[in-house]
Each structure stands twice: as C-alpha cells, then as structure tokens.
Design a protein that fits this description.
The chain is mostly helical. It folds into two domains: 1-116, Tetratricopeptide repeat domain (Serine Threonine Protein Phosphatase 5, Tetratricopeptide repeat, Alpha Horseshoe); 132-214. It is built from eleven helices and no strands. It has helices at 10-15, 27-45, 49-62, 67-79, 83-96, 101-113, 117-131, 134-146, 150-167, 170-188, 199-211.
Length: 214
Amino acid sequence: MTARRHDASALAAALALAGASATARPALGSSSADELVRQARAHEAAHEDDVALRRYTEALTVDRTSVDAWLGLGALRMKVGEPAEAERVYDTALAQVPTLRLALQGRARARWAVGRHAEAEEDLEAYADLEGGASALRELAGWYGADSRAPAQLATWRRLLSLARSVEDVPLEQEARRMVRALVILVDGSDPAASPVDPGATRQALARIAARGG
C-alpha cells in the first residue's frame, strides 16, 4: 500500500473525540453503532441520502472501527457523486482498520473517478494481490486498457489466465487466452517511438481481435 498523501479529513477529527479505544470500548458502543448503520441503510433505501450520511457518521463517532459504517459511508459518497469525499472516507478507514481490504478497493475506485489513475491502479493492484480473485484483476485490466497501457493489461490478463487454470474456470480461461493473444499482437507489433499509438484505435483493434478469437 502506498503512503497516505492526504491529511486526515474532518471526519477523522470528529472520530478523535469519540472516546475510548477499540480495545476498551464497551459492548454498548458496538451495538449502538450497529443500530445507527441499520438506520442509515434504511434511509438510503428510502433515497434519504442526507439522513443516511449523518447516521453513518454518527455510527463512526460511536465506534471508529465499524467496518459496515466505513464501507457504507464511502459507498454512499460515491453514489451521490462525491468521489473526493469518498476517497477521504476510505483513506481514514484504512488508518483506523488497516486490514479492511474493501476500503482499499473503494479508495481505488474513488481515485479513478477523480482522475488519479496511477494511484487508483496501484491501489487496485494491491487489492487484487491480497484477494487473488478474478473480479479485481478483470477490473484492473480494464483500467489499464482505458489508459492504453497494453503491456500492463497483458500482464494482468496473463495473471487471469493462470488463475483460471488453477481453479479450472473454463470460460474465463478461454476469454483470457483470447485477450492474451490479442494483446501480444498489439504489444509486439507496435513501436511507439516510430509510430505513436492512438488510444481509440488500440481499443478498437483489441476489440476486433478478441471478438474473432485471436
């Protein structure tokens, strides 16, 4: 994981006033936080996002290690179109609960949304390394493709191919084989110094090659 590049958010300052440490927190605090999260979800389902945001924040003032509150607050910030705020939420969540892997994934998506693609890709790659699942690797490959980073995209699809073989996922293995063949052609057949690659043309060529099976 990269070093944090932002100061603690206003939310972190509020959490500093919450009181006792996680190890000394009475059981009542956790149950109160759970109830506030339940209320937040109900308000969110009713499209009362402002109230839901307040409830998630209140839950975190009660229990700063509430995983559900951190993830709920970050996801809601993203949903209402506030990726910069979502990034600060996930960043603070990782400071409070360093093992919260889903916050790493959430921060990656928030950073991607605000245009900080290199940091987003670094976060998502770290998450994929920890989780080892196909979903994160597929998303990461898509990001590399969107940034016209064919070599990185190729390396990620090779990881997906290896994963598919290990878990005997035949459809994924077939897809990964097609993508690897297509990307090998693009990577080996281009000389950026002699002929700069147009990102749109690269994506179109990749789509055509993958569609016909390599």
